[in-house]
Amino acid sequence: MQFEDILYEQQGPVVIITFNREAVCNCIRRRTHEELVAAFTRFRDDDTARVAVITGRGDRAFCAGADLKDADALLPATPAEGAAHSRGERPGVIGPTRWTDIYKPILAAINGAAYAGGLEWACLADLRIAEEHATFGVTCRRWNIGLCDGGTVRLPYIIGLGRALDLILTGRVIGAAEAERIGLVNEVVPRGRGLERALELARYLAQLPQPAMRTDKEAVLRGLGRPLREALQIEAECFQRLLSDPAHRAELREGLRRFVAREHPDLQPDQAPLTPGLPR
Question: What is the pTM of this model?
Answer without folding.
Answer: 0.92
